[in-house]
Specification:
Blueprint: E1 2-12, E2 17-21, E3 27-36, E4 43-50, E5 56-66, E6 71-73, E7 79-81, E8 86-91, E9 97-106
Antiparallel strand pairs: 1-9, 2-8, 3-6, 3-7, 3-9, 4-5, 4-8
Amino acid sequence: MATFLNTTLDAISDVETIGYTSTNDSTIVLSILTANRDGGVAADITISQYSAGGSRESYLAFTVPCPADANLEILSNKYILPIVKTLRFSSSAIDFLDTNLSIVDVL
């Protein structure tokens, strides 16, 4: 059975914020969409994958620019997030970026 989830992170800051933690080995991230709400300033987004022990393993996006008043599709293909791995988000500008994750947990 599959569970479809949408997770929203509002006003991403320059401090890493947990966006999602996988609870099984069949978690599929379908999309990561980011919107810049500020009309005059671009902001960079960084998305990191962390292990269960809390150490960074990789980057899904590293300082990718999101122009002012624009949307950005971070993930253009499906991504398998292994069990107990965490996606964390940060931005170069405080409170400008909102991000939506679409996820499927297949049990």
